[in-house]
Amino acid sequence: MELVRVKLRNGKTVIIRRFWPKDKEKLIEMYASLSNEAVQWGMPPYTREKLERWFANLENYISLVAFYDNKIVGHAQIYKNPHPRRKGTGGLIIYIHQDFHNVGLGTSMLKQLLKLAREEKMHRLTLWVVADNKRAIRVYEKMGFKIEGIMKDAYFGAEGNYHDELVMGLILNERGSHRNM
Ligand SMILES: CC(C)(COP(=O)(O)OP(=O)(O)OC[C@H]1O[C@@H](n2cnc3c(N)ncnc32)[C@H](O)[C@@H]1OP(=O)(O)O)[C@@H](O)C(=O)NCCC(=O)NCCS
After folding, report:
1. Residue from 135, 141, 142, 147 whose mutation best tests the ligand 1 pocket (most atoms within 8 A of CB)
2. pTM of this prediction?
3. Which of 8, 38, 95, 170 has its CA 20 to 30 A from that of 102?
4. Is 59 left (phi over 0), alpha (psi -120 to 50) or beta?
5. Gap between the Cα atoms of 181 and 178, Å rounded
6. 130 CB under 6 A from ligand 1?
7. Which domain holds residue 116?
8. Residue 21's domain is classified under what CATH number?
């Protein structure tokens, strides 16, 4: 994938491209700078140790970053499940820095990420999202993800209450050629 320039609704232009190993420290910095609100429905903490586990297996990921002013302001990635019985399937996560929420960056990053997944002939993506995370659900639905199930009380919020979590899925290549590969 080439580098993609996107003008956001806040007038700022970001660059979206694949994550390179030399971006590690900048990605660690982005996760360290996320506000409590940005990780409200996530699985914090996003420590160096956690990210190092991604970096150690980069061949299993399709990973994109968005840059503004030489800083990473968004990260979206697919984990490609390496087990043969999970061939062509993967999980998706996305985190946008709070200064760039709701200005179209998440939508732009996911469009690019799904394009790459389709180019790689991936078949299916799965994600879990807390049912209260309305903005994320809206973006996933815009991308074609469908709600496939509800996990009652699966997420224990920082405020001390249980929340439902949705399982969402997207079939990328209904008649994907990978099946015969
Ligand atoms: C969820 C997230 C990835 C979305 O990315 P984003 O760049 O903020 O979203 P975008 O600006 O591309 O799109 C937001 C959409 O949601 C809509 N939206 C915003 N708030 C909403 C709400 N409370 N209810 C419903 N829709 C809402 C917007 O109108 C927009 O839709 P539109 O394009 O049809 O107008 C981003 O906000 C984020 O990183 N949040 C924190 C981390 C997180 O929750 N990650 C997902 C964990 S599963």
Report:
1. 135
2. 0.95
3. 170
4. alpha
5. 5
6. no
7. 4-180
8. 3.40.630.30
